[in-house]
Specification:
With 328 residues, this protein is mainly alpha-helical. It has three domains: 25-52; 55-108, SH3 type barrels; 146-294, Lysozyme (Orthogonal Bundle), CATH 1.10.530.10. Helices cover 48% and strands 10% of the residues. It has ten helices and eight strands. Strands 4-3-8 form a three-stranded antiparallel sheet, with no helix packed on it. Strands 5-6-7 form a three-stranded antiparallel sheet, with no helix packed on it. It has a two-stranded antiparallel sheet with strand order 1-2. The radius of gyration is 41 Å and the shape is flat.
């Protein structure tokens, strides 16, 4: 066996080490077994990772330029269900054809609610600050945000709007994604531009309650500005009041015209469904009233319990009549 001196020096002959070839073969076999085990573990991990569904922190890029942040997704026929929360409590269905691709969400996630204070441990001798003491009071506990339906109903009632109209605007603007950001910088559920949000007093456009309240107020102002012409108000909400006044109506922009048509169609569809439901309820109530009336009339009809009159009695035999008479 020849050993080589580092640094490029001339090789020096040395005595062969007994059993060196056997040791090399053993080491190579051991290394091969370790490599095989590592490859098996890697393949198993890859299978587990690939078997998991598409998980969160992704953005679904739509054809209209908007993006919807979601935790994971599920393809259901021609639609793709985007789950907005990890516990599947909130989701929105989007036509798969309207989704051009998916990207990783590099933005900061929504802040998690502050954890509730833990019970005191054995280190009770450590003084507790006054702020921590106040946090333990029931009034200082974390209050979860109200559901979106309640937010919409409250804002609609405050500005005398139909909640179905507000929901239709939210659906067209952001697809009910409170973290949506348009290519032009509009933010939140009702896609408020930063300047408009400042004018409306909305400090955090990603806060659903503040965003819906500000957007509802802005929509009400536009309706009053255009004498409650819904088409013009929606066009101004999308393209700006200056464009509506410039063209004296809906601007000739494909995006604005499609936006107005989409909201009007969705709103009318809801109203038509409500009218059909109310009509069916009225018909069912009328049928029930008719049935109750017939039952009352049937109960009020007199039922005769007297014995039949003499006119309906069968005549007695003649022999019995003669026998009952006086003897001659």
């Amino acid at each position: 066996m020849i050993k080589t001196i580092r640094g490029g020096a001339t090789g020096v002959l040395a005595r062969p080490i007994p059993g060196a070839g056997k040791m090399n073969a053993t080491n190579k076999g051991r290394a091969a077994r370790i490599a095989a085990k590592a490859a098996a573990l890697f393949c198993a991990a890859a299978v587990v990772l690939l078997a998991r569904p598409a998980t969160a922190a992704e953005l679904a890029i739509l054809r209209n330029g908007f993006s919807i942040r979601h935790e994971h997704r599920l393809v259901m026929g021609t639609n793709t269900r985007l789950f907005l929360a990890a516990d599947d409590s909130s989701f929105t269905d989007v036509p798969t054809a309207e989704i051009t691709g998916y990207e990783k969400d590099l933005s900061l996630p929504l802040p998690l609610p502050a954890p509730l204070p833990k019970p005191a441990d054995s280190h009770a001798s450590i003084p507790i600050p006054a702020q921590t003491e106040s946090a333990k009071s029931p009034s200082a506990k974390f209050v979860p945000p109200p559901p979106l339906n309640q937010v919409v109903n409250t804002a609609s009632a405050a500005y005398h709007l139909d909640p179905d109209l507000v929901n239709s605007v939210i659906h067209a603007e952001s697809g009910f994604n409170s973290r949506a950001v348009s290519p032009k910088g509009a933010r939140g559920l009702m896609q408020l531009m930063p300047g408009t949000a400042n004018q409306l007093g909305v400090n955090n456009a990603f806060d659903p309650e503040a965003n819906v309240t500000g957007g509802s107020r802005y929509l009400r102002e536009l309706l009053e500005r255009y004498n409650f012409d819904l088409v013009k108000a929606l066009a101004a909400y999308n393209a700006g009041p200056q464009r509506v006044e410039q063209y004296q109506g809906v601007p000739p922009f494909r995006e604005t015209r499609a936006y107005v048509a989409r909201i009007v169609h969705d709103y009318n569809r809801k109203k038509t469904a409500q009218e059909i439901a109310l009509k069916k309820i009225a018909q069912d109530a009328e049928a029930k009233q008719t049935e109750l009336k017939q039952r009352r009339e049937a109960k009020q009809k007199p039922v005769s319990t007297k014995a039949p009159s003499l006119a309906h009695r069968a005549p007695k035999p003649a022999a019995s009549v003669i026998a009952a008479g006086s003897p001659r």
